């Protein structure tokens, strides 16, 4: 059966898939998505909150996508209207939450990095985002940290320490994504969380495009989920090329 807006849904990660990480989408990407939307239903699913997604994809983002799944779908929108919200804070409870954050801050205080800035722990609706270098770093500092991280396994070792300290009691999952941070969320609250919202929507095919599809990456679970057709990309231009090869 030919793909239509009624039977085909295409979901996109944001950073590295629709945009250069943490930068605004190229106008050519936005133009192509508008054309693609005439042929299939489109949506985004990312770990960032709605505000950060709008910074990258434009203030009209909610009107430009059929589905917007912020924070992996814990904050969910269809046709620009909010229809689902959930909270990591309520799941974990304040006592456990503070114990976890205190451990993270203690661990990061001992790291020697190319630089350290601010916002090392960012509290989001559905997760914590942990950044050893600090989310307040500049783009050049991001790039320097990413190179250092890849050579020294800073985030991978950090995640290993957290898994040893808190699991299985806390029931948490850790996902490395982007250049400078990793996400912490309850098991099952990865990007596959959003799929529950569309299970009865009648789509015969659900495609997913992401760049962090490797084991431990924040696209891994949904990319490999039996409910999706996964596409792995390295840049937003890869995304456009693959989409054009499938849908034109």
Automatic annotation (TrEMBL):
Keywords, sorted A to Z: Cytoplasm, Isomerase, Magnesium, Metal-binding
Which residues does the entry assign to the active site, renumbered to this chain? 13 (nucleophile), 15 (proton donor/acceptor)
Q: Where does Mg(2+) bind?
A: 13, 15, 211, 223, 225, 228
Example GO CC term: the record gives: cytosol
Q: Give the required cofactors.
A: Mg(2+)
Q: Quote the catalytic activity from the record.
A: alpha-D-mannose 1-phosphate = D-mannose 6-phosphate
Which Gene Ontology BP terms does the record give?
GDP-mannose biosynthetic process; mannose metabolic process; protein N-linked glycosylation
Q: Which Gene3D superfamilies match?
A: 3.30.1240.20, HAD superfamily/HAD-like
Where it mainly occurs, coarsely classed, is cytoplasm
What one GO molecular function would you report for this record? Answer: phosphomannomutase activity
For this protein, what is the EC number? 5.4.2.8
Please give the Pfam families that the UniProt record associates with this protein.
PMM
Subunit structure and binding partners: Homodimer.
Summarize the protein's role.
Answer: Catalyzes the interconversion of mannose-6-phosphate to mannose-1-phosphate, the precursor for the synthesis of GDP-mannose. GDP-mannose is an essential sugar nucleotide for the synthesis of D-mannose-containing cell wall polysaccharides (galactomannans and glucomannans), glycolipids, glycoproteins and the antioxidant L-ascorbate.
- PANTHER family hit by this protein: PHOSPHOMANNOMUTASE
- Please identify the protein, giving its name as recorded: Phosphomannomutase
